[in-house]
Design brief:
CATH superfamily of the largest domain: Bordetella uptake gene, domain 1
Helix content: 40-55%
Largest sheet: 10 strands, mixed
Organism: Enhydrobacter aerosaccus
Number of helices: 12
CATH topology of the largest domain: D-Maltodextrin-Binding Protein, domain 2
Protein name: Tripartite-type tricarboxylate transporter, receptor component TctC
Family: Belongs to the UPF0065 (bug) family.
Radius of gyration: 25 Å
Shape: globular
Pfam family, one: TctC
Number of strands: 10
Order of helices and strands: HHEHEHEHEHEHEHEHEEHHEH
CATH class of the largest domain: Alpha Beta
CATH architecture of the largest domain: 3-Layer(aba) Sandwich
Number of domains: 2
Structural class: alpha/beta
Distance between the termini: 84 Å
Keywords: Receptor, Signal
C-alpha cells in the first residue's frame, strides 16, 4: 500500500478540524434562546402593560422572543419565589416593583427565601406618580382643607386600598403618620374595586397610580387633590406636589427589571445597557407618557441602592403603623 501524502492545504484543514471546539468557539452570545419575563400581577394592569412594551422592544433588539409570564398572587411572592428558583443565566427575568421586593421582605419575613437578597437588580424602567383622590362631593377643595376636615373628625372618614399590606394601603398609613390624622382603612381585592367603591361614594378617599385612576379624574368621577411626590408630574403639572410641605409623605410607584442573584455581571450589564437604549427611543417614551409613567433608568448598582432605600422606608412605616401579614 502506498503511503498517504497530504498536501499542505489539506493538512491545514485536518489540523483545524482536530482543534478542540473551545479553542475556536467563545461563549455563546446572550441571548441565544427565549427569555422569560415574570410579572407579579394579572395581565392588563399598568405594570403588565409596561412589561409587555419593554419585552416587545427587547425581542426586536435581541432577535429572540421575550415572553411575558404573569404570575400573580401572594403579594408578589409567587413570582419572586419562581425567580429565586430559576437558573442564574439571564433567561428568566422578573418585573420588580415594591410589592414583590422591598415591601415583600418586610411584610413576609418568614418566606423561605429573601425577596431582596435573591435578586440581582438590573435597571429601573419607569416611575408612576401616585395621586391622592377623593369622592367628588367630599367637602374639601384642596389638601389643606382635607387635612383640617380629617383632624376635626377623627375616625369618621375612610380610605380605600387594593388590599391589606398593598402599596396603596401603605400610602394611606404614611399619610396618617405624616399628617397626624385618623382615618379608617377599607381594603379591597384590587385597585379596580377600590376605585369603583370610591366613585360610588362608599369610601371617601384613596391613593392610586396615575395610569390606573387618571381617566376617572378626567371624567369628573373623582377629584385629584395632588400628586404624592416632591415635584409636580409632567403628566399633570397643574396638580400640586404634596410632599413639599411633608417630606416623609412621598410615595412613588416604580417598576424595574431584576434577575436571579448570581447572574453573571456581564449579562446584567448588557441587559441594563439595552434597556437604557430602548428608554431613549421616542416611540417608547411616547408610550410611557401616554400612561402617565415617567421613564427612569439607572445602573445595576444604583438600582440596588434604590431598592435598599425603598425597603428601609417601608420598614419604618410598616413598623410604626403596626401592619402585619404573617
Amino acid at each position: 500500500m502506498k503511503p498517504m501524502i497530504l498536501l499542505p492545504a489539506a493538512l491545514g484543514l485536518v489540523l483545524v478540524a482536530l482543534q478542540p471546539a473551545s479553542a475556536a468557539d467563545g461563549p455563546a452570545p446572550y441571548p441565544d434562546k427565549i427569555v422569560r419575563l415574570l410579572v407579579p400581577f394579572p395581565a392588563g394592569g399598568a405594570v403588565d402593560v409596561v412589561a409587555r412594551a419593554l419585552a416587545a422592544r427587547l425581542s426586536e433588539k435581541w432577535n429572540q422572543p421575550v415572553v411575558v409570564d404573569n404570575k400573580p398572587g401572594a403579594s408578589g411572592a409567587i413570582a419572586a419565589a419562581e425567580l429565586a428558583r430559576a437558573p442564574k443565566d439571564g433567561y428568566t427575568l422578573m418585573t420588580g416593583v415594591g410589592t414583590n421586593t422591598s415591601i415583600l421582605k418586610v411584610l413576609k419575613p418568614k418566606l423561605p427565601f429573601d425577596p431582596v437578597a435573591s435578586i440581582a437588580p438590573v435597571s429601573l424602567i419607569a416611575t408612576f406618580p401616585n395621586l391622592l383622590v377623593v369622592r367628588p362631593d367630599l367637602p374639601a377643595a384642596n389638601f389643606t382643607e382635607l387635612v383640617a376636615l380629617l383632624k376635626a373628625n377623627p375616625g369618621k372618614y375612610t380610605f380605600a386600598s387594593s388590599g391589606y399590606g398593598s402599596p396603596l394601603h401603605l400610602a394611606g398609613e404614611l399619610f396618617k403618620i405624616a399628617t397626624g390624622t385618623d382615618i379608617l382603612h377599607v381594603p379591597f381585592t384590587g385597585s379596580a374595586p377600590a376605585a369603583a367603591a370610591l366613585m360610588g361614594g362608599h369610601v371617601d378617599m384613596s391613593f392610586d397610580t396615575m395610569p390606573s385612576i387618571w381617566s376617572a379624574v378626567q371624567g369628573g368621577k373623582l377629584r385629584a387633590l395632588g400628586v404624592v411626590s416632591a415635584e409636580p408630574t409632567p403628566a399633570a403639572p397643574e396638580l400640586p406636589a404634596l410632599s413639599k410641605g411633608l417630606p416623609e409623605f412621598e410615595v412613588t410607584s416604580w417598576e424595574g427589571i431584576v434577575a436571579p442573584a448570581g447572574t453573571p455581571d456581564t449579562i446584567v450589564a448588557q441587559i441594563a445597557g439595552d434597556i437604557a437604549k430602548i428608554a431613549s427611543d421616542p416611540a417608547f417614551v411616547n408610550t410611557m407618557q401616554e400612561m402617565g409613567a415617567v421613564i427612569t433608568t439607572d445602573t445595576p448598582v444604583q438600582f440596588a441602592d434604590f431598592i435598599k432605600r425603598d425597603h428601609d422606608k417601608w420598614q419604618r412605616v410598616i413598623g410604626k403603623a403596626g401592619i402585619t401579614v404573617e
